[in-house]
């Protein structure tokens, strides 16, 4: 990791800069999927404990983001879409980000153990370690499988939410994990298709950099095929039902069709139209995950009614 220091004359950090360290967009997905995992679990949780649990899971997600930004400051300084982040822009010192990440990690894990149970707290601690160390420090700069293996970190939150309610793991929580885990590669690879130069300049071995766009296109389609059965299977468990199943069938049909369109694309045509299809599929992937978990939530409420 290259040390990044605040440059002379850089604007002083504002509150929003420290919020940005926590990667609020990523945290919002962590909060939502953890909340759904907790709520659809078969064990009722007191509303106050549920709110506290989700809050501390979110805090743990934010801690992971701060640790990631601390270590990846050199990469962020090179890539266009990350150059304005607080550390490469010189508004926050790397040491501050590291201290915030460690402090929030300790607070989040300890408080989740006290609020819910220590199994969920240990699960959260492992997730923070996995994202900050296994993915950020090891996988991201070493292997094109960084997104595949590292995607597990983003797939753990609904399992942690489920564990807050039940104190354990089940087939339902494992399938929620699988839904996010197998969604992550096609989601990020679709982005990498039209952001390849950024990753190349930063020296990040994304699949587009190490194996080229043609191989990446085939991998995207393959993963949409692998993903669909897990998404449907979740609908056949006690947390599923007709509302979720209908949503899953439509979304996976669209995602597979998008993967097929990407795989069949000629690179010259893609460049000519500004990667229009790839950007469309990337946007679809953003809605894909949110709508699956929203459908689980609606299905749960429908069952309660």
UniProtKB/TrEMBL annotation:
Main location: membrane
Recorded superkingdom: Bacteria
Pathway(s) it belongs to: Porphyrin-containing compound metabolism; heme O biosynthesis; heme O from protoheme: step 1/1
Topology within the bilayer: Multi-pass membrane protein
UniProt catalytic activity: heme b + (2E,6E)-farnesyl diphosphate + H2O = Fe(II)-heme o + diphosphate
Enzyme class, spelled out: transferase
Protein name per Swiss-Prot or TrEMBL: Protoheme IX farnesyltransferase
Organism of provenance: Paracoccus stylophorae
Lineage, broadest ranks: Bacteria, Pseudomonadati, Pseudomonadota, Alphaproteobacteria, Rhodobacterales
Designated gene of the protein: ctaB
């Amino acid at each position: 990791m290259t040390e990044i220091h605040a440059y002379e004359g850089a604007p002083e950090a504002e509150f929003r800069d420290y919020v940005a360290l926590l990667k609020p967009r990523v945290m919002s997905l962590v909060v939502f999927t953890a909340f759904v995992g907790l709520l659809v679990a078969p064990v009722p949780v007191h509303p106050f404990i549920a709110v506290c649990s989700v809050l501390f899971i979110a805090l743990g997600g934010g801690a992971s983001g701060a640790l990631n930004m601390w270590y990846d400051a050199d990469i962020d300084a090179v890539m266009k879409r990350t150059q304005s982040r607080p550390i490469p822009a010189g508004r926050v010192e790397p040491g501050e980000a590291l201290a915030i990440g460690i402090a929030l990690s300790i607070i989040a894990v300890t408080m989740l153990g006290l609020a819910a149970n220590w199994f969920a707290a240990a699960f959260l601690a492992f997730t923070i370690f996995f994202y900050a160390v296994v993915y950020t420090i090891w996988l991201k700069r070493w292997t094109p499988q960084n997104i595949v293996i590292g995607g597990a970190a983003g797939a753990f939150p609904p399992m942690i939410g489920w564990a807050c309610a039940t104190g354990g793991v089940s087939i339902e929580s494992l399938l929620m994990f699988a839904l996010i885990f197998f969604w992550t590669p096609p989601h990020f690879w679709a982005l990498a298709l039209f952001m390849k130069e950024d990753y190349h300049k930063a020296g990040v071995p994304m699949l587009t950099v190490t194996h080229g766009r043609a191989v990446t296109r085939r991998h995207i389609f393959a993963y949409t095929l692998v993903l669909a059965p897990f998404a449907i299977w979740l609908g056949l468990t006690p947390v599923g039902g007709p509302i979720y199943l209908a949503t899953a069938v439509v979304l996976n049909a669209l995602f597979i069709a998008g993967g097929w369109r990407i795989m069949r694309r000629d690179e010259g045509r893609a460049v000519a139209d500004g990667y229009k299809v790839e950007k469309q599929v990337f946007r679809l992937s953003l809605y894909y995950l949110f709508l699956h978990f929203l459908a689980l939530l609606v299905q749960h409420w429908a069952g309660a009614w």
